[in-house]
Amino acid sequence: MKKSLVLAMAMALGVTASAYAANPFSDVPAGHWAYDAVNKLAAEGVVDGYPDGTYGGDKLMTRYEMAQIVAKAMAKGANVDKLAAEFADELDSLGVRIANLEKKADNVKITGEVRASYRDVDGDVDGDSGVLRSRLWVNGQINEDWTYTGMLENEQTFHGTDDEGNDLGASGDDDLSLARAYVEGRVGGLDVVAGRYNEVPFSGNILDANLDMAKVSYGDKVKVSALAGKAYDYADGVFNSNGDEYLLKDGDRIYIGTLEAALGDVDAYVAYYKTDSDLEKDIWNVGASYGFGDFTLSAEYMRGDEEYYDGAGKDGWWADLAWKGAEADQPGSYGIHAGYYDQSVNAYIMPTTDAEYFADGYKGWNVGVSYTFAKNIVGMVNYWDMEAQTTNEDAQTIFSELYFML
User: Which of these, 302, 304, 261, lies nearest to 285 by C-alpha position?
Assistant: First the structure.
C-alpha cells in the first residue's frame, strides 16, 4: 500500500498521532512511518493483515482486496468517495457477498421461555406440585423452502406432595433433553413436517403428544393431512383398574388423517385417529369454532369405534366459550373462557389438560383467565371441577402459571 493511500485512509477515519500504542503486526514496528496509521486502521477493523501476523505492506494488492478495505472504511463513516467511484464494480460484487453473509447470520434465531407453575388438586385425589420449566428454541433457515427447529427443555420440581399428603421434596435435575428436533418444508405442492415434534390436533382434547413423526398436508382454505408417528418421552404404561392401558407410552404408534376447512368466520374439521402396539384405539372426531366480535365459540364430538374399557361408553363432547385473550406483545391484554367436558376414555388418546382426570374418562367444567402483566410476561389461572365417568370419584384442580418469553 502506498504512503499516500495509507495516510489518506487513516485521515479519513480521524487518526491522531500515537493514538494506538499496541502493535498488531510484526512487520510494522514502532517508529515505522505508517505505524500510527496502520494501527488506527486495524483498530477500526478496516485492515486485517495476514494469518501469520504480518501486515504485508510491501505486497501488491488486488483490486478486490482494495475494495474490501474501501467498503470497511465506508462502513466506519470515512469519506472515500473517489475510491468508492474507482472501485464501484468491485464494491458492487462485494456488496452482494456481504449481503449474503448477513443473510446467513440471520438464518439462525434463538428464543427462550421460562414457565413457573403451581398445581393444587383437592377431592378424592389430593396433592400439589410446583414446577419450573425452561425451554430454549433454535430456529434455522435451511433454504427458501425448508426450516429446522430444535428445542432443549429442563424441568425442576421445587415442591410436591402425593395424594396422601407426603412431601415429595424438590428435584434439582439440571439435565437438558432434546424435546423437539424437526424440519418443515415443501415438496411439490405438499407441506411436510418430519422429526421429533409435539402434535396437538385442533382442541387437543384427543391428543397432545410428543411424537417421532412425519406429516404431509395439502391445500390452503381446505386442507387434507396425514400423519404417522411413534410416541416418545412417556412412561412404560398407564392402566385402569381392569389392567387395560389407556394412555400413550413410549413406542406406541399412531396414525392420523384430517380434513379441515376455513369457511369465513367458521373453522371446521373432521379427523380419524388410530393407535396400535399395546394401546389400540380408533377414534372419529368432528369439530368447529365460530368467531364473532371478541368471542370464540368452539365445540367438538369424538367417538371411539369400540368400547375397549367397560362401562365408559364410546363417545364424548366438549364446548368452550372464550372472550378476548392475553397477547404476549400487548401489556394489559386479557382473556376469559369457560368450558364443559364429557369425555370417555375410549374417545381420547392423550388429552391436553392440567386437570386431574380418571382412568375411565371424565366430565365436568372449567373456567380460566389470562393476563399480560408486561411485554412477554403472561399469567394464566385455570380451575377444573371433574368427576369420573363410572365412579363417584371427583377432583378439583387449580393450575396457575407465569410465562417469561424471550
Answer: 302
DSSP code for 402: E
φ/ψ (deg, to 5) at 237: 165, 145
Question: Which residues is 340 bridged to in the sheet?
Answer: 319, 365
Q: Which amino acid is at 128?
A: D
Which pLDDT belongs to residue 82? 62
Beta strands in 164-208 (DSSP E): 177-187, 190-199
Is 177 within 8 Å of 154 (Cβ atoms)? yes
Angle CA 319–324–325, to nearest 5? 90
CA distance 380 to 348: 25
- DSSP state at residue 294: T
Q: 405: how many CB neighbours lie within 10 A of its CB?
A: 15
- Taking Cα atoms as reference points, which of 332, 301, 334, 294 lies closest to residue 315? 301
Average pLDDT, the chain: 83
Cα(210)–Cα(199) distance, integer angstroms:
6
- Give pTM, 2 decimals: 0.73
Output the pLDDT for position 46: 67
361-374 and 127-141: which strand pairing? unpaired
Side chain identity, residue 24 = P
Q: Alpha-carbon Rg of the chain, whole angstroms?
A: 31
**Continuous segment of H or E residues that includes residue 210:** strand 209-219
How far is CA 401 from each of CA 34, 376, 377, 398, rounded to the nearest angstrom?
63, 14, 11, 10
Largest CA distance in the chain: 96
In the 8-state DSSP scheme, what is residue 170? -
Cβ neighbors of 59 (< 8 A, separation 6 or more) are none
Q: Which of 278, 256, 162 is nearest to 208 (CA)?
A: 256
Joined together, the cell numbers standing for residue 232 give: 416418545
User: pLDDT digit string (tens) for 325-361?
Assistant: 999 999 999 999 999 999 998 999 999 999 988 888 8
Per DSSP bridges, beta strands 253-263 and 147-161 are unpaired
In one-letter notation, the amino acid at residue 264 is G
Burial class, 264, CB count within 10 angstroms (exposed 0-12 / middle 13-18 / buried 19+): exposed
